[in-house]
Amino acid sequence: MSEPLILVLVVLEGIGVLAFAASGVLAGATKRLDVVGVAVIAFLTAFGGGTLRDVLLDRGPFFWVANEGWVWAVLALAIVGPVFLRSQHIEPTAKAMQWPDAVGLGLFAASGTQIALESGATPLVATLMGVVTAAFGGIIRDILVNEIPWVVSSYQLYAVIAFAGGWLVWGLGALGMAPVFAVALGAIATILLRVLAIVFNWRLPQWRLGSA
Amino acid sequence: MSEPLILVLVVLEGIGVLAFAASGVLAGATKRLDVVGVAVIAFLTAFGGGTLRDVLLDRGPFFWVANEGWVWAVLALAIVGPVFLRSQHIEPTAKAMQWPDAVGLGLFAASGTQIALESGATPLVATLMGVVTAAFGGIIRDILVNEIPWVVSSYQLYAVIAFAGGWLVWGLGALGMAPVFAVALGAIATILLRVLAIVFNWRLPQWRLGSA
Amino acid sequence: MSEPLILVLVVLEGIGVLAFAASGVLAGATKRLDVVGVAVIAFLTAFGGGTLRDVLLDRGPFFWVANEGWVWAVLALAIVGPVFLRSQHIEPTAKAMQWPDAVGLGLFAASGTQIALESGATPLVATLMGVVTAAFGGIIRDILVNEIPWVVSSYQLYAVIAFAGGWLVWGLGALGMAPVFAVALGAIATILLRVLAIVFNWRLPQWRLGSA
C-alpha cells in the first residue's frame, strides 16, 4: 500500500472512530452505565468493527494498537463526555449525532472495503468487510445495552448504504482509479447518500407479514 | 487433506449453511427486523459457527470466502424468503424447519470435528469445535433478537448430540476408518439421533433448584 | 518466557478459571438454563477472556487447548455444581463467590497484562488486554442470560481495578523486577484492592444526568 494512501486511511478511520465512540458514550450514559461501562462501550463501538475486520482478514496490528493516540482520545471522551451531558440533552444530542455518524459510516465502509481489497479479498468479501467495519461496532453497542441492534431493526438505509459504498470503491478501483481517490470518492458518496436518507427519511420496505 | 474429503466437507457444509440461514431468516422475520437485518442474521446464523471455529483454529480462508456462491445464496434466501412468509406461516414453518436444522446440526458437528482434527486438535478440542460449528450460529441469532439462546435454555438434546456425534467421528477415525467415511457416518448418526430426540421429545433433566 | 514464569502463569490462570466457571454455573442455574447451557456458560465465562486476548494477540495455543485438564474440570463443575445448588442457596452463594471472583480478577488481570507484554504489546495495550482477560468472560456470561453486563453497570470498582493492577505489573517490570515477581505482586495488589472495594462498598460516582 502506498504511503499517502495509508496516511489518508488512518486519518479517515480516526475521524470515524471519534464519531462512533461518541455514539457509544451516548448509549452508555442514556442507559446509566457506570463510568467504566461508558468507556467500555465507547471503546467497543469505536474499535469493534475495524478489529473484527482485521481478525477476519488475519491482519495486524489493529488500528488502535498501531495508533494508540486514538485509544487515549476515546478514553478521554468517555470520561469527559458524560460530565457535560444532561437528561434533556440526550434526545437532541442523539439527533445531532446522526451527522458525524453518517461521516463515520462513509469513512469506515470505504476504508474497510479498500483495506480488505488490499489484503486480496474478492469484491463481495471486501464490501462485506466494509459493512462489518461500519456496522459491527453499533451492533455490539446495542447488544451491550440489551437492545435489538438498531442497524438491523430500524428500517433505515444504513448498512445497505455502506454495502453500496463499498461496491463503488471497488468499481472505481476496477476502472483504474488510484485507490486513494477511489476511497475518498467512495466515502464522500456514501456520506452524501446517508445524509440524503436522513433528510428525506428514506425507509426500507415493511414486511407484509401481517397482511395475508 | 485428500481431495474427495475436501469436496464432501464443502458440500455438506453448504447444505448445513442453507438450513441454518433459513432459521436465521425465520427468526429475523418473526421479530420484524428489516430486510437488511434479516440478511445480517441469516448470514451470521449460517456462517457464524464455522467462522468462529476457523478463527479459533487460526485456519483460513473461511468457508464463505473460499466458496462465495454460498454467500450469494444466503443473500438471495434472506431477500426472497420473507416475501413468501406470512404471519400464520411462522409457527408451522418453525416446526418444519426442525428437520433441515437437524441435518445442519449433524453436518456441522461432523465436519467441524473433522476439520479440527485435521488441524491437529486433540479429540476433546476437536469435538468442542464441532459443537461450536453447529451451535454458535444459533447462539448469535438469538442474542441478536435479544433472547436467551435456545441452545442453552430449551432443555432439548441439541448441543449434547453434536458433542456425541463429534466423538463418534473421532472414534471411527481412531479405529482406522478413512476420514471421509468417518465424517459421513458421524453426520448420519448425529442427524438420526437428533430426529429421534425430536420425535420422542427427549428432554434434558430439569434442575431441582426449587425443590429443596 | 522463562520456565518458572510459565508455570506460575498457568497455575494462576487455572485458579482464576475455576472461580470464573463457578460464577458462570451460578448465573446459568439461576436463570434455569439447561445442563448444556450451564456447561456452555461456565466454559465461556471461564475461558472467554483469555481466548479473546489470545485471538487479539494472534497467540496460540489457547490456555484451554494447551491445558486440557481445565476443560474437563470446568465440565465437571458445570454438571456437578447445580446438583448441589438449591434456590435458597443462590443469594448466599453469589455473595460468597465475590471472594474467589476477586482472586480470579487479580490473577487474570496480572497474567493477561504480562502475557501481552511478553507478546510485545505496549503498556496501554497490555493493560487493556489484562482488562479483557479479566472482564470479558463475565460480559459474555451476562449477555448470554440477556442482561446488561454487571461489569459495565454495577458502579462497582472492578474493571478499573484490573486496569490499575495491569499498570502495576508493567511498572514493576519497567523498574527492573523479574516478570514472575511483578505478576505475583501485581496479582496480590489487585486482589487486595478488590477485597477492600467489596468490604468498604466503594462505588464509582453516579452520573448527574438527571440533576440539571
Care to describe what's here?
The structure is a homotrimer of 212-residue chains. Chain A is mostly helical. Chain A has one domain (3-204). The first copy, chain A, contains nine helices and no strands. Chain A has helices at 3-30, 35-56, 63-66, 69-80, 87-118, 123-144, 150-153, 159-174, 179-199. In chain A, helix 1 packs parallel to helix 4 (69-80), helix 1 (3-30) runs parallel beside helix 6 (123-144) and helix 8 (159-174) packs antiparallel against helix 9. Chain A is globular. The termini of chain A are far apart. The mean pLDDT of chain A is 90. The A-B interface holds A 55-56, 58, 121-122, 124-125, 128, 135, 139, 143, 146-149, 151-156, 158-160, 204-205, 207, 209-212 and B 28-29, 31-38, 40-41, 51, 55, 58, 60, 62, 64-65, 68, 71-72, 82, 85-88, 90, 143-146.
